Every structure is written in structure tokens, then in C-alpha cells.
Amino acid sequence: MKPSRSDYLNIRGLRYHVRHWGDSQAPKLFMVHGWMDISASFQFVVDCLRKEWHVIAPDWRGFGLTERTRGDTYWFPDYLADLDALLLHYSPEESVNLIGHSLGGNVVGLYAGVRPHRIARLVNLEGFGMPSTVPEQAPGRFAKWLDELQDKPFMRPYATLDDVMARLQKTNPRLSRERAAFLAGHWAMQNDDGAWDILGDPVHKKVNPMLYRVEEAMACWSQITAPVLWVEAAETDIWRWFGENTLMRPEIERRIAHIRNVRTEIIPDAGHMLHHDQPELLATLIESFLEE
Q1: How far apart (Å, rounded) are the C-alpha atoms in residues 42 and 275?
Q2: Would the pTM count as exceeding 0.85?
Q3: For residue 50, what are the contacts with CB-CB under 8 A and spacing of at least 6?
Q4: Among residues 35, 85, 199, 272, which is most buried (max CB within 10 A)?
């Protein structure tokens, strides 16, 4: 495995953990992870990159080794602001190559439309957006949010690291034992009682009171000027997580159509965690796209 090193920054009042691979003088490649994931999740893809890159991957606020907010809700615009601050720190002048998976894919897609001049090339891994909503859902969503605020969120610990590995493999049956062992050691940390705690703020499990407005997201996507590589997994789990038939192919095509310069690819024999399932194929796609 290619070795990584850690850096800590003060980003908007939080102590942010940022993982680096490669020579700091090499071309920069930024990678941002998804919900309940960590920066180390990109290790397998980084190992498969042929060219020398300086890969920079933060743990989002409230995930991994980055500080938690101490609030009762994580607001999506904060991810955009955190990303903006990180890019200003590591690449204050030049446009960047930016990769995002899932939650991270949604963040980078919006960001590339809001700050089009900052992006050289964009890779969106399974960042479809969320299910469409209608205004009539707002009262119920606010009520659910208020109800959930009455209970302190909780994430159960695991007795052993093997149990953490089993949890990861239950979510993704394609994950090999070797890769699960690596991820488990970064995804969880042993507490004073000897159990293993997931490195994710339980607050992330609470409902967000704000409805997802897909038309606003597409308005941002329509302002992207950089070339975009849109990558999906052939056997993605997104449909199951969002609810059956929530997002069907025509809706995905409608959303993609708002991106001016986009190339789509589908990774075979892979689920939503395609960077774990097919890192070699994904690394080849990414480097081919970046080198065009």
C-alpha cells in the first residue's frame, strides 16, 4: 500500500484532518468521501494510480478524525464552505482536479457550479443527488426533526475489530477480508473500555429539516464549465437506500442533461462503494479522463 500522512488544519472553527499521499510537488488531485465514510477509503484507488499524484483527501466535519460540530444538525452548505476553505489553503490560485463520492459527489457537483473557475476537471462517483421533494412534505419533515431533537443520537460500539470488519462486509458483501481489515482500523477507534467506536458523529443519523430541491441542484450543475466524468456502479445500492423506484433511469438522465460537458461511465460488478469494489478499473478511468 502507498503510505499516507496526516495534516491538521483549522477550517471554519473545526480541527480538520486531511490525508495526503504522494510527493507534495506532484500534480494535485483532491478526493472527498461520502456519508459515514473516511478519507482512507480512497486507499485502494490511490494504490492503483499509475502516475505520481499528490492526493489530498479530508475527513468531512464529524467524520473520521475531523472534529465534530457540537451542534444538533449538519447543514449541507457547510460542506461547500469547508471545501472552499480547503482548496484555498492547498491550491489558492490554480484550478483543481476534484473527485467526490456519494455525499462528496453531491458536494463537488454543486461546488463546481458555484465556483466554476476553481475546477479543472471533475469526477462525480455516484453523486446522483437526493430524491425529489415537494413543498407539502415540509411540515412533516420539520415535525420529524423536532421530534428527533428530543432524543440523544447513539451509535452502538463493537466488541472487537473483527466485528467492525463484519459490519463493513455486511453492508458491502464484495469487500474482501483484507480490505475490510484495513478500513475497519480507520473507520473505528478503540475506546477506554476496549470496544470499538465508529468515527462518525451520531448526529449524522438525524433527519435534515431542509427539503432537497433538485431544481436548485441542477441550476448549479448547469453552470459547471469544467469537463465532468460521471461514474456509476452497475449494481448500485442507491435505489434500495432511497426506496424502490425512487430514482429511475429517466430521472438520472434528466439530471445529467444539465451538465454541459459530461462523459458517463458504468463500472461493472460494483455496488455503491465502487472505489472498494473495482479500484483498478476506477483508477484507470480517472487517469484516462485527467490526461485527455
Answers
A1: 7
A2: yes
A3: 283, 287
A4: 272
Per-residue pLDDT reduced to its tens digit, 159-174: 999 999 999 999 999 9
The average confidence (pLDDT) of the chain is 95
Q: What pLDDT is recorded for position 4?
A: 98
Question: Tens digits of per-residue pLDDT, 118-157?
Answer: 999 999 999 999 988 999 999 999 999 999 999 988 899 9
Query: Is a pLDDT exceeding 90 seen at residue 288?
Result: yes
Please name which of 103, 51, 43 lies closest in space to residue 74, comparing C-alpha atoms: 103
What CA–CA distance (Å, rounded) separates 273 from 265? 15
Task: Please give the pLDDT value at position 152.
Answer: 86
Q: What is the pLDDT of residue 244?
A: 58
